[in-house]
TrEMBL record:
EC top class named in words: transferase
Keyword S-adenosyl-L-methionine included in the entry's annotation: yes
Residue stretches in coiled coil: none
Residue numbers spanned by region Disordered: 1-53
Record field: compositional bias (Gly residues): 1-11
This protein's GO CC annotations: nucleolus
Classification via InterPro entries: RRP8 (IPR007823), RRP8_N (IPR042036), SAM-dependent_MTases_sf (IPR029063)
Organism (species): Spumella elongata
Family: Belongs to the methyltransferase superfamily. RRP8 family.
GO terms under biological process: methylation; rRNA processing
Cell compartment(s), UniProt: Nucleus, Nucleolus
E.C. code: 2.1.1.-
Name assigned to this protein: Ribosomal RNA-processing protein 8
Highest taxon of source: Eukaryota
Amino acid sequence: MAKGNKGGGNKSGAKATHAKMVHHTQKPSAAKPANNGASSSNTSSAPASKSGLSSLQQKFSKKLEGARFRIINEQLYTSRGCDAFAAFQEEPAQFEIYHTGFREQCSYWPYNPLDGIIKWISTKHRKAVVADMGCGDARLAASVPNTVHSFDLVSNNPRVVACDIADVPLKDQSVDIVVFCLALMGTNIADFVREAHRILKPHGIMRVAEVRSRFDGEGIGIKKFTKFLKRAGFDIEPHDIGEINKMFFEVECHKTDR
């Protein structure tokens, strides 16, 4: 992404809690036999993981990471690409928090659209020069034999160039394929599409895979989105628009001469 999915902490004061010691008088009891050196139940604790966290602590940590991911995800969808780029350059650790949450989310999907795009390029376009917009960890570049230019908001990988995907450092008409896989995040997706048109060679292909909810409901709608693509200089045939499943849809379109 710009990927795109893609915040600072709030200070909070914690009130100190004072516990009162309550002394009970008990009748003396006979000493209990030793328990083979084992700790009594009231002093034992849950086993810690290799990270040093108990299972309960791990659960809370995972919930906190999920909450951070959702906050950053919302910020990415409601910001312009240039603003998201500037924010991540100031706090690149937020990018890793986002992508850790994204990878966790992907692990629950029955299908990842990127797998289909990797197969499509590997089998049908092995010699194409590709631009992967909002590339995340650059798995596409690592999975195909092609020359792949990988762009995202932060570069934590030698394959990735950090930039705003509305302004990538490529010459006009220099690539055969542009890929947006779950990367049309931000309020200015029209700028991303225009940039794709600029860098594509004549009759080059733009492949978009997105979450349906990004366009359904209160979104711009898939029909309006495809109409915009046509106005932006792409040809789209009815069979080029496909539903991967209930979660995702794909659009494959070709740059026109106009």
